[in-house]
Write a structure and sequence with these properties.
Elements (H helix, E strand, L loop, with lengths): L1 E5 L3 H13 L4 E5 L7 H5 L8 E2 L7 E2 L7 H6 L2 H10 L4 E3 L4 E4 L4 H14 L3 E3 L6 E5 L2 E5 L4 E5 L1 E4 L14 H8 L4 E7 L3 E3 L11 E10 L2 E12 L3 E3 L1 H14 L5 E6 L6 H14 L5 H5 L7 H8 L13 H12 L1 E8 L7 E6 L17 E3 L7 E2 L4 H17 L2
Parallel strand pairs: 1-2, 1-11, 2-7, 11-20
Antiparallel strand pairs: 3-6, 4-21, 5-6, 8-9, 9-10, 12-19, 13-16, 13-18, 14-15, 14-17, 15-16, 17-18
Helix pairs in contact: 1-12, 8-11
Protein name: Aminoacetone oxidase family FAD-binding enzyme
Cofactor: FAD
Keywords: FAD, Flavoprotein
Length: about 400
């Protein structure tokens, strides 16, 4: 039996290794546009490779039907993944947070061992091969590049991801192939990405970083709250808390909802207590400018912008400010609202949302319900995980189930 796998990422590699281990008689040909396998694996975790997460559930995913992942997570849980890693000689380092890294702390060791496993199983890997078309002639598939045609495939797996990180040759050709075979897909959008806001002061706050509570409002309704790092940038905001909240923010933004975020600089202090603390601070140095005094609480970049938003003159002294103005400062620090207007795009996104509709794919075999012997796995499907190794784990798990199906 002859099998073609489009994409040498985590899902495709796992499918190839699993299938070939179960059936040595398979001929498996893998195709990838890059010069090496697992380019997104290499890029994950800032080069350290956040390879999985030991605390994974379907709640860590969004999409049209997040429950689609349940069977894959049950069949290929973290223990199963750990066992697979040991089988290729890879030891893992599980952090208290649930994040999992290779013990070597280096992504290259992961791709090296996967490459060796593919080689030992006689899997054919065709690199720098951009697939432009896939056809089905009678009951066989034909895979086409610009120069060559590869024929007589019994089964085909589309696992070449979506558009996040185009600098790594990421593209949405998988959706084109799916559409050609009658599949529909949900619109794609950048996920785990910085957010552009409509404020006129963005450049003034560039480089300010602080742990804050970030609240997401969709059509003025509170939808989510996340605590973590916030980094102010020239275009808006980034940082871990923003990347996390971006998933739901951008999903709603893509359907033209009104999306705002509110940043609470002091989440452990309510605005009344914060107001009292500011008032007490101002009383200690009545003849100093308020803007200078506030730098004892917030960044010296934030203080002048804060007063500008509250319509307080920068030369105002502590003994000149009134109670209403102090409350306005406290309120702003507790709920610094910004309207989200765009993202930093696919080039800066860690993952893509949207993709092939899961209602058209079998959740146990990952075979198309529309075309026999056509399979999908990984990011090309309308499933996207939270930051922290969840996306890679879904790629491994879906690839594992496909591999079992390909072997039969």
């Amino acid at each position: 039996m002859k099998i073609a796998i489009i994409g040498c990422g985590a899902a495709g590699i796992m499918a190839a290794i699993t299938a070939k281990r179960l059936n040595k008689n398979l001929q498996i040909d893998m195709f990838d546009a890059n010069k090496g396998i697992g380019k997104k694996i290499l890029a994950s975790g800032n080069g350290r490779c956040n390879i999985s997460n030991s605390k994974i559930t379907s709640k860590n995913f969004i999409g049209e039907n997040p429950d689609f992942v349940n069977f894959a997570l049950k069949e290929f849980d973290f223990k199963a993944f750990e066992k697979f890693c040991k089988s290729i000689g890879l030891l893992l380092d599980e952090k208290e947070s649930g994040k999992v890294y290779p013990l070597s702390n280096e992504a290259k060791s992961v791709t090296n061992l996967l490459e060796l496993a593919l080689k030992n199983l006689d899997v054919n890997v065709y690199l720098e091969h951009f697939i432009k078309d896939i056809e089905k002639v009678e009951d066989k598939f034909v895979v086409k590049t610009h120069e060559f045609e590869y024929k007589n495939y019994d089964k085909v797996l589309i696992s070449n991801g979506l558009g996040a990180a185009p600098q790594l040759n990421a593209n949405e050709s998988g959706l084109d192939f799916a559409s050609k075979f009658g599949h529909s897909y949900n619109p794609t959008y950048p996920s785990l990405v910085g957010l552009q806001t409509d404020n006129n002061y963005n450049g003034k706050l560039q480089g300010v970083k602080k742990e804050c509570l970030v609240s997401l409002f969709v059509n003025n309704n509170l939808e989510q709250e996340i605590f973590g790092d916030v980094l102010f940038t020239s275009y808006g905001v980034s940082g871990f808390a923003i990347l996390d909240i971006s998933q739901l923010a951008v999903l709603n933004l893509s359907s033209y909802q009104d999306v705002k975020i509110a940043i609470n600089f002091f989440p452990k202090i309510n605005k009344n207590d914060l107001s009292d603390q500011i008032q007490s601070l101002l009383k200690t140095v009545p003849n100093q400018r308020v803007v200078d005094i506030l730098t004892g609480m917030v960044s010296n970049k934030i203080a002048p912008v804060l007063l500008d938003i509250c319509k307080i003159n920068l030369d105002t002294k502590a003994n000149e400010i009134n109670a209403k103005q102090i409350k306005a400062i406290a309120y702003q620090l507790n709920q610094w609202k910004m309207k989200v207007v765009d993202t930093q795009g696919f080039a800066h996104a860690e993952a893509s949302g949207g993709g092939v509709r899961t209602v058209e794919v079998d959740n146990k075999t990952y075979e198309s319900k529309l075309v026999k012997n056509l399979y999908f796995a990984g990011e090309v499907l309308d499933i996207v995980g939270n930051r922290g190794g969840f996306n890679l784990h879904f790629a491994w798990a879906s690839g594992y189930l496909v591999g079992k199906s390909l072997a039969k």
